[in-house]
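Appendix B. One record, verbatim.
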Amino acid sequence: MSNEIVKYNNIMNEVSFRKFNPVEFDLFFSLCSKMKLKGSEPITLTFDEVKKLTNYSSRDKVRFIHDLENMYSKMLNLNFRYEDESEIVRFVLFPIYRINKEKSTVTIGVNQEFSYVLNEITTNFTRFELEGFTELRSGYAKTMFRLLKQYKSTGFYIVKIEEFRRILDIPESYRVADIDKRVLQQIEKELSPLYKKFEIVKKKKKGRGRGGIVSHLEFNFLEKLPLEKHEVPLHNWLEQ
């Protein structure tokens, strides 16, 4: 698998990928990697190309088509939103999406009016290697992997617990103890090996009980230097 680069405007980090499973995350961001800096012109990829990008293991064509279709159905419900002083706009990032079952291809095109999300990305952008993203197993870990890339220059990210629930699409039924066990522990298990330092701190406010109520989560992290990573490929970063 070639190590493609995913790069997009930080507006995408404000979107909650509701109900996306890990396979659908991989499919979506693999398409983003291929649409990067392509304008709004549609591109066509073969099923084999997409599978290679995502390390998709199943050889079942019907299942793969089902996964592609499910991903797009969920993507149509994503709340892409733009607001300035004069207006609020909601939009679909990929209005063109065509699966050709006979030719085994998928064709995608970016919304022309909002192509800046994947094109005009010289400032306020998030950048990461697709391979590292697809190797993660949990959807929660994948989302935090992306979010922390936005803050890698500071190594610090703090978020209100309510916003954390929204962005990661955590079930409303989860109490703080459930979030700790089913979300935070999974994130720490998968992401901590990627960092020289990785720490999650629960910030509390006064409330009932002796311990108080968790109001914020604080992530402190320090990325490993290239020489500290295993099997780091050489890249010409100027071409990315």
